[in-house]
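Before surveying the methods themselves, we first show a specimen of the format, giving the amino acid sequence and backbone structure tokens:

:::
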Amino acid sequence: MTRPLVLGLTGSIGMGKSTVAAMFEGLGVPVFDADREVRRMQGPGGALLQAIEAAFPGTTGAHGVDRPALGARVFGNAAALARLEAIVHPAVRAAREAFLLEHAGAPLVVFDIPLLFEKGGVDEVDKVLVVSAGPEVQRARVLARENMTPERFAEILALQLPDEEKRARADYLIDTGRPLAETESEVRALVEKLKSA
């Protein structure tokens, strides 16, 4: 049975991964967004609410997971984070497999996975695209986010593989520190290359 070429899309926080994923979608490439899937499963009536509430009482309600409350329970607590990941990761993997079946006839699909290298997802993709920008650009983008502090940014970076290591392990690299039109033309060229391969 033939299946699509699976391109893993990753990059550190603030590197423009969501923007690049949207460019792939705009070109008609099916994109599995791991973060979006988690938000759906943790939203109102989501499939993970019961298990999360059992493990972390008081962190869910009518609107789904109370993200700040859950974050406060797991951030900086390795055992609690591992407990949460044991609930979330198998569900995301199953959703990704269903997505792949749904798009089995496509020549190319993208798995948008923020922690592709850190959590071992690299074994589930054929090629890896890393999006990257200079550290000043990254810092400015991240600190412009609501409720972001320099301390929180530093904590998030500490959990992620350094950008230079991601770049070294990439099959393809797109610099998102340039004008959007340049990034878009790079994405378009990569889509054409991968589809023709």
Observations:
- Residues 35-102 form one domain.
- The first strand starts at residue 5 and ends at 10.
- The chain is about 50% helix and 15% strand.
- The first helix runs from residue 17 to 26.
